[in-house]
Predict the structure of Carboxylic ester hydrolase.
Amino acid sequence: MTDDPSRRRILRNTGVLTGAALLTGVPGGPAGQAQAAPPAGGSSPVVELPAGRLRGAVEGGLTVFKGVPYAAPPVEALRWRPAQPHPGWTGTRDATAFGPSAPQLYREGGDAVLGTHGAPPFSEDCLTLNVWTPGADDARRPVLVWIHGGGFISGSGSLPNYSGETFARNGDLVAVTLNYRLGPLGYLYFGEDGAGGNFWFTDQLAALRWVRENIAAFGGDPDDITLAGQSGGALSVAALAGARTAGRPLFRRAILQSPPLGLQIPTRAESLQRSATYLDIVGARNVAELRTLPWPQLIAATIEMFRRTGRWGYWSTPFLPVLDEVTLTRDPADLLLAGPGADIDLLIGWTREEAAFAFALSEPYAAATKEQVLARARDTFGARAAEAYTAYEEARPGARPVDVLMDLIGDDLFRMPGIDLAERRAARGRPVWAYQFDLPTPAHGGQLGAAHCLELPFVFDNFDKWSQAPFLAGLNPRIRDGLAGAVHASWISFVRTGDPNHRPMPNWPRYERGSRTTMSLDSVTGTVDDLAGYWRRLRRPTAR
């Protein structure tokens, strides 16, 4: 091979050992512009909205409103219907407690990687959002709206993990998180009377429009919104890029963390077939019968959906969006290349060992053979599968077949489609910055590496809220906190300016076709040119 596919990286800029002091100099950070003062005397803040009056709370010097409804409860006749406007309320509504999370599978104690990703209480009446702001005033601050991920079946904007507190305080931003329908309640497609599907999308769109119409009352600027998300939430951000108002996008900037752009979004016919499988599991004949069943019964069927829809060597996703030609007409990545999405500033990235999240601790996959992995590699590389296997094997000294498989899955689903989007944006002269999160965790004997989701507590810089997450065990606190300070500051800078650069991080250039610069986020942070060049060229015959 003429190209070196090894994972050793040469940092073009001088490597900088990141430190917590990197927040210094970020606008709105400790050494940046002054932050708005909280309400005097700890009084309960109140805002007037078209829907009614809200009373929030002051927490840690920030003004916070929780459990704010942005759409009507999607229950009874509104189950599997697009999000509808909330009717409003009389008097003053209390907004000091989170609303319930969307119904989802739940296991006490969580899993061995992330721990808990969605916690009770659960309710179909879940279409609420939460706002953190330095002050409900007329400051017109930049706004960050966060959409959680979770494989389309789990997660919650009400989790402390995703608290907007750090962004609001350190960046002088207004931060918003939201809940939306998940699993069968958000992703089943029935095509009733030619109607669309993607009820999750209609929820998120309603929330985003609510933010544009109401965020000024919370001190935010409706014309300066950054929409961010991770995993399934990042795919949502891309899908929402096609929405517009007066011909313009609904948001100004986008952050896509580990978007699974390699997913093949099913057509209407394919989605109807998947819905038929679900109906068979539940024992219902049609959606009308499904509307009579309690949601715990609907959610419990997810377990059998995993069994019936899973394929060996692929990340299981029992519920998926649909190209319904109503709410979603194109692949989400394409919506960031043309139309209103083309003008959105974009920050995109992935972790180095994405697929370790789902496969590294799996005993059945640990027994995978080379022949099995080669058969899976043929799905991607065809006749070049053996060459690709060798390249992945050489990239990870001492690699087992399952290691090759994980790197292949991670590239198929996350890294290579992300690079492809950056390539196509750069070719059109559209702004895009790229990163790869490279810091491995020592948890579980180092088997996870830099797994899917590992960057999340670094982005939010709130490790105290992640005490239940096993995959953070053993991280060196000095390195952990230093990198978190740097990453968090870059995200704040991007939200405020459309550029992730800040002092004293190494210069982070835009991704361009000539250099293909990607920022490596690690204990020593620096830029890498064309870090996946070998695999990009190896895949070229089958690339879009």
The chain has one domain: 16-542.
